Amino acid sequence: MTPPRTDLSTFANGLAARLPGAWTSDYQRHATYADQFSRTEQLWDLGHVQHIVSQYVLTHDAVLHGPDGQRLYVVDRPHYPHQFVVAPLAPDDDETQPHHFEGVAEPNGIAVPNDPARAAAGVDRRVLPRYEQALQVVRDNAADQPEPPHRPAPPQVAQVLTLTLYEDGVLGAPYASVPEQARMTLYACGFQYHPHQAAILLPATYSENGRTLRLQAVFRLLTAKDIGVNLRHADPNTRPAPPPTSGRAARTSHR
Predict the structure, then answer these.
(1) How far apart are alpha carbons 131 and 43 in whole angstroms?
(2) Within the chain, what is the greatest distance between any pair of CA atoms?
(3) Residue ranges covered by each domain of the chain
(4) 35-89, pLDDT tens digit by residue?
(5) What's the first-to-final CA gap in the chain, in angstroms?
(6) Alpha helices of 74-159 — where are they, by DSSP H?
(7) What CATH architecture applies to the domain 159-233?
């Protein structure tokens, strides 16, 4: 027979009373599975506590509120009726943004016994120091870089080469559209001039890897010359114009 589980609300109150500083407990029962998400989505853990909240339906939980905005998540440990898990929650305020957490290790949570005194000793020794350190780093990041480090816009270039991938697998551009300073680079990278198509083309006979290497070289060499490079697919609705009808064929068709 499975032994009765220790009451979570009573345990959370006892744990809050024994942690250093002023802590209070906020117990909540969940009527539906989705009700647990508002709290579990703030979990600052990549260990077994994260596994528990992602794999089990939690009918209730508690959040302990402590000094300096610290919050601890407390919930039953499945299959262990005399244990709970305690894990930090990430700061939830207007100043903290996702990029402030980059490079900061999760403080993670631990399993604790159902004795509040022993549990408090374990949390004080193993969780709170990591939590306080991680919080400080995140807050320092928020102070140093409030806004996300957006990438700068690309530099303006006077010339641009647009390469088109045609439906037959050939890659290239009309000869007249290729900047003069780019033509020798294309030839050196395997492109060929086809006068009957009035285009500079990379044959479709190259392997996928061979084509990729040549394209990488084109991008690298042309951007070094301040020539922009675009890559596009041909419009599937565009069809080449039919060749002009010869005079003889035209006369024959009207006989």
Answers:
(1) 12
(2) 109
(3) 8-144, 159-233
(4) 999 999 999 999 999 999 999 999 999 999 999 999 999 999 999 999 999 999 9
(5) 103
(6) 116-126, 128-144
(7) 2-Layer Sandwich (3.30)
